[in-house]
Design brief:
The complex is a heteropentamer.
Chain A lengths: L5 H8 L23 E3 L9 H5 L5 E8 L2 E9 L8 H5 L5 E3 L6 E2 L6 E9 L5 E3 L9 H5 L5 E4 L4 E4 L9 H5 L5 E3 L5 E5 L9 H5 L5 E4 L4 E4 L9 H5 L5 E5 L3
Antiparallel strand pairs in A: 1-4, 2-3, 3-6, 7-10, 8-9, 11-14, 12-13
Chain C lengths: L1 H21 L3 H22 L12 H6 L9 H32 L13
Helix pairs in contact in C: 1-2, 2-4
Chain E lengths: L1 H10 L4 H22 L9 H10 L3 E3 L5 H21 L13 H8 L1 H13 L3 H33 L7 H11 L9 H15 L10 H4 L9 H26 L8 H26 L5 H24 L3
Helix pairs in contact in E: 2-4, 2-11, 2-12, 3-11, 4-5, 4-6, 4-11, 6-7, 7-8, 7-9, 7-13, 9-11, 9-12, 9-13, 11-12
The chains are: A alpha+beta, B mainly alpha, C mainly alpha, D alpha/beta, E mainly alpha.
């Protein structure tokens, strides 16, 4: 037949068109459609893996000092994103999700940014006192909400119960001689248990910053404390529970 | 007094030719003055005849040396101007006068202009004499002078490529045609012992046709066929029109081949009066149809502006021959009108071609382009000419072509002959192809992009523009005021061609024709009930108002053409898929690709036939003459 | 007698046309044209010939008085022939001059070489 | 009245001209998908035009390679006013995965004001439709602004 | 009075206003039906009108390579000639001008919009337009032969022993003898005419000249704004004129007695013809190549028309 579609065309003319309504009622993509990114800042542990794996460099980080820590803003630029979902796959905490929402249309650039904030508390060491300058006035003990400090003027002792201390910092403010301060936190990091380790190198692979180095042949496990961001990815990834977070013995 | 005008006009032109040669070969002023004086006086003298001949219906006769007929025998050379003669004479004077004006600046840079103007005046005089004479041998002499002057003028710019060759071909084919004519005239003389057309006509119509007269008819028709370049004889025309100076090309297409058409009409309608025979009609119509078809198809593939126009001349003459071959009043009216229109629009087109040649130095369609920006006035004239020749309403070509279709189809319906219907179809299709080839010229010469080497082109001087304006105006006016043209020019001319009695009586004395039993045919003027010029005028006004509103009212922003080398604002640059503007002109040879592939075989044959070898052309001439003779003998049995 | 003239003129015309059509040499083509002319001229002259007629020379008074011979050859064709010969000579001269110039330009007078304008 | 008619029509017959400035063809295919029976953008008067002179909305896809930049700018200049530029997908706005390449000149905003950007790699046809629809409304605003 | 009457005819009915309104309507119907045949919803019927008005509101860019006068005047001339053609076509039983030879006038007037397109495109100076006009011209040559044959066949059929190029005579003959389409000898001619109509209008399979995907809309490439709008209007009007011509040539025999009813029937028939010969072919075919188009028209379509002409000539 010369016009193979003639019959089809006539049939079509008298049947309901196959066009979908606009705007689409539910507004969701089908199946495994990867649409707008949803970011849950609460879940984020600021490991930085997403930024590392993002090939179009669509994720931006912004740090903002606030009281008691810092707010870490993560901005997902949808106009830059290539929707590969690698960040989703790599996010251990499941903080990044791809929704099926495809309404990614904007007249301004801001319309197409997904932002999320993570609050990261400042890590503080134990309360210490410069004993040499302390006058043992007891103001700190009196003002401590948890009664964690005991001061004895007579014996010139100043003690703090680390169990009770909540590191609220009130005592530091009350001290007339300004001798109280929080100590540098104890170096904490990934602790390695050589007995459990099978040198599978999974931890090295999981590490977002590449701080871990494992040599299977010589059975060595090394971590570069400088670069480690203590995100815990290696710990979660370890099949033998050979890694844990704890104080580091230098 | 008035009866001296025609012969004075002819004499003045010949006298002017000699005077130019004697006095004007050195001095430009004298030469131009003599030329224009002779041409203008001839123009005035012929125009003065409109009133008595066209309007009052007189026939002017003039006997050279007062050799009036004695006892029914015309011995002297007579001039006889009926409406038919005057119709062609008007075309002739208009054409050569305009051509003369055009030549003044167009030819100004050539050498040996004395010879040019001598030949020009001789050519004009000979064609004028040809259409006004009443004597067949005088006609032959005029034909020969015409051929001679044409050949010399064709080869005038003999340093140019091809001029000599074209002149030689023209001469060979032309003098073959002249020889045929002369043989025919001799045979008639042998039968009738007279050379006066009126008397021959009277005698032939009472005696019937003998084999000798049939032979004479065939030879004379072939001879004038050569002069009007119907198809197998057309080959030298294409070459000659192409290489001759354009003012002369205009004369060729405006006058010289009209002389052939005039000869055909005179011979077929008045001298032999054979157009009531359906076989003769068929023969002439078929020749006409073939002429128009081959002419236009050849024109479609040409790469030379003037050669293309030359093939169109051939094609349009095909229309004229078809129309006059129909033998009906309507056919003759349409043929005459188309002949007239052809003179106007083809003259105009040749003038624009000349303007292009003058301004740019070439007429090669592949090298030109975008001239409308540099030569806007020429472009408008060209467009009017192109639309006229393609038969777009309301220009004149439309009306005459329309009449041709009507005449052919009426003939087809009346005679029940399917061939005429096919001829109508051919005529209509040829019209579209004509349009196509002029679109090709429009695109290749006037529109499109301007090549870098033509950036400095200037508009031609006013002396060249004025003839173009006059012709454009005539093209439009003849189309719109067709009823007036019909009433005062076409109807008298048709009437004169069909009613021979007056012609014979005026020449040979009253009652001469009746005595020999020549009868008249009643002619109804071709009329169109709806053809109302006021409507067309309103249309024009509406068009102009609308165009004006659109042009001035729209928020159009115009890109300025800056000096070469300055970067254009990309907004106004031609869209080249984002590329920077380049020179890219779709030239004449690149157009109509689909058409050309489908017609490959046809063109291979046709281009093989137009071989350029003069002996081949001679063979065509002889074969065609033989065919005409054979057909005539078979039909006239 | 006169039929020989007619046959001769026809033969001349045909010969001339044959020459024009078949000879590639341009000068021969011109000669062919000349031969056609001669044939036609012969035809015209023969048309006016009356066997046994005298020359058409007489005075008006002779004619009126009936003294003039009543049988003379037709003078008109002779006039025509003269004109025709003159024209023919002109055409030949023109053609030959063109051939000379063609030879200068094309370096050949073969018709097959002189075909720059074609198609 | 006439002017109102023109203003109303401005958003109802937006013609598209699509420029591929080095795109991977994904967005181009999706743009064509918009015109298929399923999405049928023609019901809002959208039509693909063959030349920028006819266009109202110019749809740009691809990361503006340095080869295509000049051509892109030239073509955009040839679109008559009022016009609207829509960037299709991530590439024109940022360069996407090609960002930083020696041959990529994204973002498009450096050369022309982008009215609507449709994100996605590639955007879903519905999203493209939505973006084009927004662009059509912007066209009307522009037309009205032109004739204030 | 004559002038006023003529102005009314040219400007309002059945000239410019009537033709353009119903032309735009037909174009809308065409687009809608094509959309439905492609299983889409399609644009509203007013869409061509929106297009036209939108284009009027846009900036008209005249490229510096273009000839301004020809560039701007071309669409207007096409428009006027289209408005004029309608005066010769009997709308229902109504004809503004009736003469004895108006078929040829129509034939020639109908080439003017094409020529206007060509001149306009050519004057824009674009090489794409050069190719476009070449194709447009070949298309014109292609359909002209069958068109002429159809017209001659109809003229012969309607005229009988005398010449009848007049549309009015065709209408009268049909009023007496029933529709031309129901004469079996005219059926090939009708089919040929149905194929000529889309080529003349330039719709889908025959729009080689304006192929927007190959040669960027060909002659229209440099047009924008109002001038382009006029060309779009011309296309729409051509649709109405050509379908109207078909209706009056082949389906002109329906007479109710009331002029208004006749006009309504005329328009309905125009819609039907448009759907059959333009929308359907558009929906089911793809664009032809130019040489195929030429061959198709000069062999198949012209053969059909010639067949009809011969049949009519034999008195059938």
């Amino acid at each position: 037949m010369m016009f193979p579609f003639l019959k089809k065309a006539i049939t079509n003319a008298f049947t309901k068109p196959s066009t979908e309504a606009f705007p689409c009622p539910e507004g969701e993509g089908l199946g495994n459609y990867r649409g707008r990114i949803a970011f849950d800042g609460e879940k984020c542990i600021d490991c930085g893996m997403c930024i590392k794996v993002c090939s179009p460099a669509a994720i931006e980080l912004e740090r903002e000092e606030v009281e008691g820590g810092e707010n870490i803003w993560r901005t997902f630029d949808l106009t830059s994103c290539t929707f590969c979902a690698t960040c989703v796959d790599f996010c251990e905490e499941g903080a990044i999700q791809m929704t099926k929402d495809y309404h990614m249309v904007g007249t301004k650039h801001e319309d197409l940014l997904v932002k999320g904030v993570t609050f990261k508390k400042k890590i503080i060491g134990d309360l210490t006192c410069d004993i040499d300058n302390c006058i043992y006035c007891g103001l700190c003990a009196r003002n401590c909400p948890q009664n964690a400090i005991t001061v004895d003027r007579t014996t010139k002792t100043w003690q703090v119960d680390h169990e009770k201390c909540v590191k609220c910092g009130i005592c530091i403010g009350k001290c007339p001689k300004k001798v109280l301060s929080f100590a540098e936190p104890k170096p904490e990091g990934v602790v390695f248990d050589a007995e459990k380790c099978v040198y599978c190198t999974l931890c090295a692979k999981k590490c977002p910053v590449g701080a871990i180095e494992v040599d299977r042949a010589s059975k060595t496990w090394k971590i570069d404390r400088e670069t480690c961001i203590k995100c815990g990815a290696c710990i979660k990834g370890c099949p033998k529970q050979a890694l844990s977070m704890g104080p580091i013995e230098e | 007094m008035i009866q001296h005008f025609p012969v004075l006009a002819v004499m003045l032109l010949f006298l002017g030719a000699f005077c130019v040669e004697i006095f004007g070969s050195k001095n430009e002023g004298i030469r131009n003055t003599i030329t224009m004086l002779a041409a203008t006086i001839a123009l005035v003298l012929i125009y003065a005849l409109i009133k008595p001949v066209m309007i009052d219906g007189e026939i002017i006769s003039y006997w050279m040396g007062n050799w009036a007929p004695v006892s029914g025998y015309a011995i002297g050379i007579g001039y006889e101007i009926d409406a038919l003669s005057l119709f062609f004479a008007l075309l002739v004077v208009t054409t050569f006068w305009l051509s003369g004006v055009y030549s003044l600046s167009y030819m100004a840079n050539d050498h040996h202009l004395g010879h040019y103007y001598t030949l020009y005046l001789m050519l004009s005089g000979s064609v004028l004499g040809l259409v006004m004479t009443g004597d067949v041998f005088n006609m032959f002499v005029m034909v020969e002078i015409m051929t001679f002057a044409s050949v010399a003028l064709t080869a005038f710019r003999n340093e140019n490529e091809g001029t000599l060759e074209a002149g030689f071909k023209y001469l060979v084919i032309g003098s073959m045609g002249s020889s045929f004519t002369l043989t025919g005239i001799a045979l008639i003389y042998g039968q009738c012992h007279t050379l006066n057309m009126a008397q021959i006509s009277a005698q032939l119509s009472c005696g019937g046709l003998t084999p000798t007269t049939v032979m004479a008819l065939a030879l004379i028709v072939a001879g004038f066929g050569v002069k009007s370049y119907i198809v197998p004889f057309h080959t030298p025309a294409a070459d000659a029109y192409m290489v001759a100076p354009t003012s002369i090309s205009m004369i060729f297409s405006g006058m010289v081949n009209k002389a052939g058409v005039y000869g055909m009409i005179r011979v077929l309608y008045i001298i032999f009066r054979v157009m009531d025979q359906s076989n003769v009609q068929m023969l002439i119509v078929l020749f006409g149809a073939v002429t128009m078809f081959i002419g236009v198809t050849m024109a479609l593939t040409q790469h030379e502006f003037k050669r293309l126009l030359a093939f169109h001349s051939i094609s349009q003459i095909g229309y004229v021959i078809t129309a006059i071959g129909l033998g009906s009043a309507l056919g003759l009216t349409s043929g005459l009108f188309h002949a007239m229109n052809h003179t106007l629009f083809k003259g105009l087109l040749f003038l624009t071609a000349g303007a292009v040649l003058y301004a740019t130095g070439t007429t090669n369609l592949d090298k030109l382009g975008g001239l409308s920006k540099r030569m806007p006035k020429t472009t408008i004239c060209f467009l009017i000419g192109a639309f006229s020749i393609s038969g777009l309403p309301p220009f004149n070509g439309f009306v005459s072509k329309w009449l041709v279709y009507q005449a052919t189809y009426t003939k087809a319906v009346e005679s029940g002959n399917f061939v005429y219907a096919i001829v109508t179809v051919v005529a209509l299709v040829v019209s579209v192809m004509t349009l196509a080839s002029f679109i090709k010229v429009t695109q290749a010469v006037f529109f499109g992009q301007l090549p870098a080497e033509l950036k400095k082109t200037k508009e031609v001087p006013a002396a060249m523009l004025v003839p173009m304006y006059i012709m454009s105006a005539l093209c439009v006016l003849c189309g719109i005021f067709y009823p007036i043209v019909n009433k005062y020019l076409l109807y008298p001319a048709t009437n004169a061609a069909l009613n021979v009695t007056n012609y014979i009586d005026k020449m040979m004395g009253d009652g001469y024709a009746a005595g020999l039993g020549v009868s008249n045919i009643e002619v109804a003027p071709a009329a169109f009930s709806f053809w109302n010029p006021i409507v067309w005028l309103i249309l024009f006004v509406v068009i102009f108002i609308a165009a004006f509103i659109v042009i001035t009212g729209s928020k159009s922003s115009r890109g300025q053409l800056l000096q070469p080398g300055v970067k254009y604002d990309p907004k106004y640059a031609t869209f080249f898929s984002g590329e920077e503007e380049l020179f890219s002109q779709v030239g004449g040879s690149d157009l109509f690709w689909g058409f050309k592939t489908d017609w490959k075989g046809y063109y291979r044959v046709l281009e093989g036939l137009h071989s350029g070898i003069v002996t081949d052309y001679a063979v065509f001439t002889v074969i065609a003459t033989a065919i005409i003779t054979l057909c005539m003998f078979i039909f006239m049995r | 007698m006169i039929i020989v003239n007619y046959i001769a003129s026809i033969v001349l015309i045909v010969l001339g046309l044959y020459t024009v059509c078949t000879k590639k040499n341009l000068i021969k083509v011109v000669l062919g044209l000349g031969i056609v002319d001669y044939g036609v001229n012969l035809l015209i002259v023969s048309l006016g010939f009356n066997d046994g007629g005298t020359a058409p020379i007489y005075q008006m008074s002779d004619l009126l008085n009936g003294v003039a011979p009543h049988f003379f050859v037709d003078p008109v064709p002779q006039a025509l022939t003269l004109t025709s010969i003159v024209i023919g000579a002109c055409v030949d001269a023109m053609a030959l001059s063109l051939v000379i110039m063609i030879y200068r330009k094309y370096k050949s007078i073969n018709a097959d070489d002189v075909r720059r304008l074609h198609g | 009245m006439f002017n109102k008619l023109i203003n109303d029509s401005a958003s109802k017959s937006p013609w598209l001209y699509h420029i591929n400035s080095g795109s991977c063809n994904g967005c181009d295919i999706e743009l064509v998908a918009v015109l298929t029976p399923r999405y049928d953008a023609e019901r809002f008067g959208f039509k693909l035009a063959g030349t920028p002179r006819h266009a109202d909305i110019v749809v740009v896809s691809g990361p503006v390679t340095s080869q295509s930049r000049e051509r892109l700018i030239r073509t955009l200049a040839q679109v008559p006013e009022p016009k609207c530029v829509v960037s299709l997908g991530s590439c024109p706005k940022s360069g996407n995965v090609f960002k930083g390449s020696y041959s990529v000149e994204a973002p498009l905003d450096n050369f022309v004001h982008v009215d609507v950007s449709v994100a996605g790699c590639t955007p879903k046809p519905e999203a493209i439709m939505e973006g084009l629809y927004k662009a059509a409304l912007i066209l009307k605003e522009k037309r009205e602004a032109m004739h204030k | 009075m004559l002038i006023l009457k003529s102005l009314f005819y040219i400007l309002i009915f059945p000239g410019a206003l009537f033709t353009s309104c119903f032309g735009l309507f037909l174009a809308g119907v065409d687009r809608k039906v094509v959309a439905r045949m492609q299983h889409r919803i399609g644009p509203p019927l007013r869409q061509p009108m929106y297009d036209f008005f939108k284009l009027l509101g846009k900036e008209t860019i005249i490229p510096h390579a273009a000839n301004k006068l020809a560039f701007l005047a071309a669409p207007v001339i096409g428009f006027v000639s289209l408005a004029l053609i309608m005066l010769f076509i009997p709308v229902g039983g109504f004809t503004a001008f009736s003469g004895n030879a108006d078929m040829i006038v129509i034939l020639y007037l109908i080439t003017i919009p094409g020529v206007a397109l060509i001149v306009g495109g050519s004057s824009s100076g674009s090489p794409y337009a050069g190719i476009g006009i070449s194709r447009e011209m070949v298309t014109m040559m292609a359909y002209e032969l069958p068109f002429v044959l159809v017209l001659l066949a109809v003229a012969r059929k309607a005229g009988g022993s005398e010449l009848a190029f007049s549309m009015e005579k065709v209408a009268m003959w049909q009023a007496e003898n029933g529709n031309m389409l129901f004469q079996w000898s005219m059926i090939p001619a009708a089919i040929a005419m149905l194929l000529v109509v889309p080529a003349e209008v330039g719709t889908q399979p025959f729009d080689v000249a304006e192929a927007e995907t190959e040669i960027c809309e060909g002659p229209l490439i440099e047009y924008s704004g109002g001038a382009l709008g006029m060309f779009k209007l011309n296309t729409a009007m051509k649709m109405f004129v050509m379908s109207g011509l078909f209706v009056s040539l082949f389906l002109g025999g329906i007479r109710t007695g009331s002029v208004l009813c006749d006009i309504i029937i005329f328009i309905v028939l125009c819609v039907v013809v448009t759907i059959i010969c333009m929308s359907t072919t558009h929906a089911v075919t793809a664009r032809l190549k130019i040489e195929h188009l030429f061959k198709f028209y000069w062999t198949f379509v012209a053969g059909m028309a010639l067949c009809s002409l011969i049949l009519v000539w034999c008195g059938l």
